Amino acid sequence: MNLFNIIEEIEKIDPEFTDRINPRRQVIKNITSFGSKVALAAMPFALGTMFKKAYAADPAVSVVDVLNYALTLEYLESYFYNQGTAAKGLIPDRDASYIADVTDDENKHVIFLQTVIKQLGGTPVTAPKFDLTAGNGSGKGPFADVLTNYKTFLAVAQAFEDTGVRAYKGQAPNLLGNQVVLTAALSIHAVEARHASAIRYLRCHRGYATIDPWINSTSTKGNDTGISLVDGNYKGENNVMQGGVDVTKLPGSKPGDTISVKNATAAFDEPLSMADVLALLVGSFIVH
Amino acid sequence: MKTETTRDSGGAPLHRRTFLQYAGAGAAAAGLFAAGCRKESAAVNTTQTANGIDIGMGDPAILNYAYALEQLEAAFYIEVVKTPYAGITDHEALLFTEICEHEVIHREFFKAALGAGAIPDLTPDFSKIDFTNRTSVLTYAKAFEDTGVAAYDGVGYLIQNPDYLTIAGKIVSVEARHAAYIRNLIQLGDYAGADVIDMNGLNNTKTIAEVLAIANSFLKTKVSASHYNYVA
Question: In chain B, positions 69-128, which contact chain A (CB-CB < 8 Å)?
């Protein structure tokens, strides 16, 4: 499965797809709300079936497909941090090694995934063209100062890391029972979560944002970053139902205590489907 | 999907298969987690041992394994919040209270989800931890969180039900967030140190036997996993 075959498939069902994800039209709306429309309304039959099968632990999505999807996300993260590192005067000296460690991990993930895909007899996808401003190649997207303003750089970093965690989590069922690949994917997933926590902590530590290392949602809003442009990346993080259990109804730490929505949502990170993640990225950060 | 063959009671295997088919059909709806687990009763899957409990086998065993670790973490942070270490900042106190809540939620979630199949309450032994000392608390907090991450990642492939796997995934990334935060408190920038990340940028993993050997050093009630090569 090629990343862009998915887009073509969606276009067959939804001819306006390209228009809709075109940032020249309505970039904010697209970034924040398009994912749900793809997932619920415009998902082609083939994809829908694929995800149902995936849910049933019948891996219709091949392991190599999952790994190429992961590789695409790692290409984006790796490109982002490498560009940030190369941008003169962007990262302050005092944070240089902090960011360098994240960069190093992402570059290693790219090489690791390429290697595993080849070992499985697959062909690693090549990196798509990226626009870190989320402008679909215009370089003038909503994050136009991403490589000149450190605060914007960290805000985008956080959205990428939090979304990366969700993306890997969403693929775990497609790798059910696969000791080597699932374990590797979960291990990258955990590192992305460490990065997410680290970027959040750094933003708080430097006084750029009042934010915790974990995602504290409200009952109506998953996004706790204060950046409404990335609402879509946090859609569903406000879920409090886990395995049929309403977490807010569980006993608290002391008799009589209740569980807040903030803590209930922070205690569980939510997955995102492949379709949702691609809808968030393609046409903005991934040039289409 | 692997079907369990080792059962103590006749008649139960049919329930097990029915449940797996039901879950496997993608019809998993709210409540299935709890309902499914109730069928996996404690009488079948967990057994008393001379010094504690054995988690049994299959998905209920993995869930009980997670439940055991969450009990330990929750008990630790309840103590941290109750007796804050000397020199704790307001921000640290706030975030430790939140971490405590997360761990209590995880504990109570597994307890509710496992129902009658849950292992009993475990009695912790924190005698080697000096809760008044920041270094001592942070050192053990880091150990608990890093071990928790490695534990979840290490058993993911053993989970047969995709819904359970997703739940484990939802929790492990929160443990990783905790781990990175605590490591940053100890040393800024050590959120993913070389002791927990390998040369490919992957988090390390630990087997059930490795994790329980660590966990049991903080537990009076010993947890065994005889089906996974570990007896306390």
Answer: 74, 78, 81, 95, 98, 100-102, 104-106, 108-109, 112-113
